[in-house]
Write a structure and sequence with these properties.
This protein is an alpha/beta fold. It is 64% helix and 16% strand.
């Protein structure tokens, strides 16, 4: 009887230890029993130090855990997350992996695309990860380690610059700087003396400038009055009359243009006829000059001229003889 009791106690203790171990393992792996979960997948280029079991945060509230991290084709990493069904996903959601504390703990934050930080690298990662169906675009922020390394590099660069400055700024540079300061002080003294000497000139310039400003104000007032008069003229209809007169003048100018065009066309036709007449006259003159036709022979034959001259002499002698002796040629009988 005692042996059976001891065996039951040992069995109960072993069973309790096994249950405790299983519960601890489930708690470590963030296993959920009896809870309804939604699975969400995001793809990123690098998960940083994110691990399975890290929290998934929506609007500052833990909404689930990272379930798995898997390598995907084309250099991507798929991050699977289990979310409570009661959690509502934000519209146009994206995933941002970042550190949640200074002790190296990471989290996956689901937020709207418009709420992303103003970081060019993060936005570029989100843009590259967008496109796969049923998969959220994701990006990762650098961890404390990377920031510390970058800060160390910056500190090294600052130390290098400081060393170079120390090398450049030696005793001679200090003396030159003192000399420059002394020269600046001397220049300031000279400028002060110059200003005192030309203070009256500055007053004169100020008076002239004030007069110029007054003249400019008067000119502006005159321009305003002219604008008001122009506005009044436009209101009274004078500008309308001017516009009507310009319209009438435009009609007259158009009519005159048409008349000038008609005259040009008539002049063009007359010029054509004149060119034809001149061409014909040139042809006739060429024929006359070459001796063609009666007129050409008359113009170019000198013998005809001489005969005509002798004929005229004879006619003159005949007329003189008729005048002297009319009875020889005319006989008058009266019956």
């Amino acid at each position: 009887m005692k042996n059976r009791t001891s065996d039951l106690i040992v069995g109960a203790v072993v069973l309790a230890v096994i249950v405790t171990l299983l519960a601890s393992l489930a708690w470590v792996q963030q296993s959920d029993f009896g809870q309804r979960r939604n699975e969400v997948v995001a793809r990123v280029r690098d998960v940083g130090n994110a691990r399975v079991g890290n929290a998934v945060v929506i609007r500052g509230v833990i909404a689930g855990r990272l379930q798995a991290i898997e390598l995907a084709p084309a250099g991507w990493v798929h991050v699977r997350m289990k979310l409570d069904r009661s959690m509502e996903m934000p519209p146009n959601a994206v995933v941002l992996l970042n550190e949640s504390s200074l002790f190296g703990e990471w989290q996956a934050m689901i937020l709207e695309r418009s709420a992303l930080p103003a970081d060019v690298t993060v936005r570029q990662q989100i843009a590259e990860a967008t496109g796969e169906r049923n998969v959220l675009a994701g990006a990762s922020l650098p961890g404390i380690g990377k920031l510390t390394a970058v800060a160390g590099q910056i500190a090294g660069d600052v130390a290098s610059v400081a060393a170079r400055v120390q090398v450049a700024f030696d005793d001679q540079a200090a003396r030159e700087l003192r000399s420059s300061i002394r020269n600046v002080a001397d220049l300031s003294t000279v400028l002060s003396t110059t200003v005192r000497a030309h203070a009256s000139d500055l007053d004169t310039v100020a008076v002239q400038l004030r007069a110029a400003v007054t003249s400019l104000n008067k000119t502006a007032a005159n321009a305003q009055r002219m604008a008001e008069q122009l506005d009044a003229s436009a209101t009274s209809g004078e500008v309308r009359k001017v516009v009507d007169n310009i319209a009438v003048a435009s009609v007259d100018l158009r009519r005159a243009t048409l008349q000038v065009r008609e005259l040009v066309e008539k002049f063009t036709a007359t010029q054509g006829r004149l060119d034809s007449f001149l061409a014909n006259g040139d042809s006739v003159l060429k024929k006359v000059n070459s001796g063609q036709g009666s007129l050409g022979l008359l113009v170019n034959d000198p013998s005809l001229y001489r005969r005509s001259d002798s004929l005229m002499v004879q006619l003159n002698a005949l007329v003189a003889d008729i005048k002297a002796n009319p009875g020889r040629y005319v006989r008058l009988r009266i019956f």
